[in-house]
Amino acid sequence: MPAESAFTILFDGRPIPAEDGRSVAETLLENGVHTFRRTRNGEPRGPFCNMGICFECRMVIDGHPNSRSCMTPVRPGMRVETQHDSNIEAPDEDR
Amino acid sequence: MKTVEVAVIGGGPAGMAAAAEAARRGASVALVEESATFGGKVLKTADCGLPLSPIEGYEKRTADRLLTDLHRHADRITLIPRHQVWHIQDGRVLELSPVGGAPVETRQVRCRRFIIATGAMERIRPFPGWTLPGVFPLGGLNSFVKHGILPGKRFVIAGSGPLLPVLAHTLIRAGGRIAALVQTTTHREMLRHVFPLMAGMDAFKLFQGIYYFGRMIRNRVPIYNGAAVSRVDGEERAESVRVIRLDRNGDPIPGTETEIDADAVAVGFGLIPCTDLTRLCGCREIYDELSGYWRTLRNSRMESSVDGVFVAGDGAAVKGYSAAALEGTLAGGAAALQLGYGGEDDSESAAVQKRLKKATRLGRALDQLSAPSSGLLHLISDETVICRCEEVRLKDLRQAADAGARDIHDLKRRTRTGMGQCQGRFCGQVINELLWNLLNRQAEDFPLRDVFTPRIPVKPCTLQDLLGNSK
């Protein structure tokens, strides 16, 4: 890995190494992260189709929820957080 | 707003060839692609630091040739990568939104003709545990491994179709350990399909198949024929896989399960066209029982039932990248001809028709070989998630059917199945069969095969994207 293309991103507040040209999903998997999101029922979910159509890998990226980690390239200093669906969606009585 | 004569949606082999051909004949073109690079999923260059295999080398040359053609007419082609089409208005205006934090290039493309080349997606079948992290479709895992990412230590890869040997090959090269390759196809079926397949194949495809299987045998990959993954277990991610034997009809045989340790599992059953945009445009399609999917109807110039809307490549019917590029060229040429640009009508060439016929035959043989048996749906338990987006389980669908739901739209309204972010692209593949099973009817007594109504935005986008377009 050439030094100039290596940097860190923050995953749930913890710095992890990243490399230019990779997606957020690739970077997390490479660092042993498999749970990207928790569903309303608390079940773990990770990336699935890796082509932008299933939306299973959505995370909070730089403050934006529902960002597809498989379609988002890493950038230096990027903040990536596990998405908790119960926190960002309307409460059940509004559904 | 960007105004061009021809807009092309999808930057895979079909879209690239379509854009290049329309521009070559003189038309101004915009080419919209969701990812940052062109070439589509199939020709995405391997980047795991290893020298290219002969097959990868061939695919890279194909991708390079398509790119060269595209750049040759760069003055007439606007490339719009990292943008998705979420709506097509009045059949002439594409509404775009940026993907993955990309800066906005343009939010609208107005055109006189457009070519849909959205490619294929994977055919899936739900099974217990398929939502656990570490479980992928074959192509999903393959594109990670192609980029040098190994999301596990012991892999089980399963299902049917051409992606299975492709993934095995990619994994072997990247140093992944394949604990089992599980294919639904039996030896008998292989024999029944091998000759029609070989008749339709060109020398390269034949070489490819032999090469892949040779690699598997040399690397002593444990192969299970006539079997399927019946469930994946694990707490936070996949930990173990159960493999079940299938009978002659492809139905699981109870009591024949074997447990295998694995932390990464990939299951898929061939490819089906991505039809969200063609459906949105109202292009007529038919359900092909043999292939097991909806195919878009087109004339020999790749024009759909809607005037001015062309559909090229695997997004109409799955035939592979060589045929996709050929169809793209036909569509691009025909669109330019309609706009008054000169040149030959390639669709009348006997050589072109012959190549397309051959590709269609091969595509159908592969579709048939990879189509999963309806018996696999019996693996689904009441707790199995069917609609991943809305976490709708089989028991929820059963409850709705018991309460009177009689068609898939009614099921959707009662349970939210198909209403999530993916717009029913996955659960929609099995919803008809599941409803028939729940109502204890056979397809024959209940012939209405239905599709979820396409809704905009076809891909989720932000309110800002919607508002930006109204300015």
Kindly describe this structure:
The complex is a heterodimer of chains A (95) and B (471). Chain A has 95 residues and is mainly beta. Helix content of chain A is 12%, strand content 32%. Chain A has two helices and eight strands, in the order ββαββββββα. Chain A has a five-stranded mixed beta sheet, with helices on one face. A three-stranded mixed beta sheet of chain A has the order 4-3-8. Chain A starts with 5 loop residues before the first strand and ends in a 7-residue tail after the last helix. Chain B folds into three domains: 2-121 and 272-348, FAD/NAD(P)-binding domain; 124-269, FAD/NAD(P)-binding domain (3-Layer(bba) Sandwich), CATH 3.50.50.60; 380-445, Orthogonal Bundle (Arc Repressor Mutant, subunit A), CATH 1.10.10.1100. In chain B, 34% of the residues lie in helices and 21% in strands. Chain B has 13 helices and 23 strands. Chain B has a five-stranded parallel beta sheet with strand order 4-3-2-8-21. In chain B, strand 14 (227-233) and strand 15 (240-245) form a beta hairpin. In chain B, helix 5 (187-200) packs antiparallel against helix 9. Chain B is globular and about 65 Å long. The A-B interface holds A 22-23, 25-26, 29-30, 34-36, 39-41, 43-56, 58, 61-62, 64, 66-68, 71-73 and B 34-36, 41, 84, 99-101, 121-122, 131-137, 139-141, 143-144, 147, 149, 151, 236-237, 274, 388-389, 391, 420-422, 425-426, 459-460.
